[in-house]
Amino acid sequence: MSSLDHLTSPRAARTARVSSWDQRGRNQDYWTTPAHSSRVLADIEGPGRITHIWMTQFCRRAFGPGLIDPLEADTVAPVMEIHNALGVNWEEPDPDYYRKVLVRITWDDEEEPAVLVPLGDFFGVGHSMPASYQSALFTVSAKPEESLIFGGSAALNCWAPMPFDRRARIEIVNENDLPLQQYFYIDYELYPEDLPEDTLYFHARWHRSNPCGGWAPDLQTNSPEVNIADLTGEDNYVILDVEGRGHYVGCNLSVHHRQGSWWGEGNDMIWIDDDFLEDGTTLWPPSLHGTGTEDYFNHAWGMQRNAYLYHGAIVHEGDVPGYAVNYRQHVVDPVRFERRIRVSVEHGHGNHLADDWASTAYWYQTLPSPKAVLPPVADRLPVRPATPPRPEPAPRRGAVAEEIAEMRALHAERWRRYQERLAERTRRRGERSLAESEGNVRHSADVRRRYDARTGRSGPSAGA
């Protein structure tokens, strides 16, 4: 049987989309989410399934006044806002925004979101540093000049199937002090019948340990002295620990290695169901015990520069020394559990390394969704190399000093006016995006109503 066999058979379903298209019919096809606010991208009545999510976005900080009025530039596509035109504008991407902005997805009016993950890490943009890769569930496409730099722009895709029975609510939460400008598609299909009671729902969670509690970060990886016996795994880095029924379908792992040697060698260990005893302890060995971090990610002798359907390297430490992002997707080999699962990896053999690890776990399980908690923004930011301070202005004397003082006063006033216009533009864009969010909700409700009228199904409107 082919994985494409579903294309040869009809199915009772109605396809639709919500997106950031300019509902005025113009070309400002992106939404603005102001600082410390959120936007509802989709609010859809079920039963149905999210089939595809595409996003691209930018978040830039202005360092000086541009020559083009921000409100006048608001009538065209954001060409100037993506790349600097020397002497015309002076902006740079926020290097950390992929960690400051969250994806939040809630199924069937649950109290807890099923997905609560930093925007970048959800799609595989680890360390807030995009790089192109292709996998079964996610892809990232970045221009060469935007790749492997903190805060670079990229196109993000997710094809993980996400069923919902009563309602799907997808939100962007901007915890940054800058506005987020975002394009998006959310493609979905509606069904005439309720989902089966045993349907498993898509979930994702993010975790970070910075630093991991290594007992010997000063000892070289693979040296004889770090080859201790680990027969418990109790100090492992935990990717996922959840109760319920479902299956784990993979993760991405971002590592900032501080020793300068090799960050792998840690064994993967996965406990399932009856591996957990009533007193809270675990059996040894766990149901799945691996042979090394690189082996869990299906590499060998370190990581290679590849990106396959189910495993690969997104960022290779040979391209960005000290940084790595890898993924493993259990699409054809899901790890199933009936009551509980704990997915963990040693951070260096015997947990001797004290690196910065961050991971996103993906799994499907029955509702209710488990508690979702994220650390505050300050504890999510990627570790970036220190930037040297800019030089202080050198003093001048005489007539030129007077002219310099006048020019600085002119610059300060122009910068003040420019910031006011930027703030007004953000306000206007934010209001329009909020109205278009409400328009998306109404559109989805209307599609559901018309589909139900055709199929004879009765149900409340998602927007009611």
Description:
With 464 residues, this protein is of the alpha+beta class. Among the domains are: 13-59 and 94-196, Jelly Rolls (Sandwich), CATH 2.60.120.1390; 200-365, Protein of unknown function DUF2961 (Jelly Rolls, Sandwich). The protein has five helices and 24 strands. It has helices at 79-82, 97-100, 119-123, 293-296, 399-455, and strands spanning 14-19, 31-33, 37-45, 48-58, 60-64, 90-93, 101-107, 115-118, 133-134, 138-141, 155-158, 162-164, 167-174, 180-190, 201-209, 237-243, 246-256, 268-272, 288-289, 311-315, 323-329, 335-337, 340-345, 356-365. The strands form four sheets. Strands 3, 7, 8, 13, 15, 17, 20, 21, 22 and 24 form a ten-stranded mixed beta sheet that branches. Strands 1, 2, 4, 9, 10, 11, 12 and 14 form an eight-stranded antiparallel beta sheet that branches. A hairpin with a 7-residue loop joins strand 7 (101-107) and strand 8. The radius of gyration is 25 Å and the shape is flat. It comes from Streptomyces boetiae. Residues 1-20, 374-398, 423-464 are annotated as: Disordered. Keywords: Hydrolase.
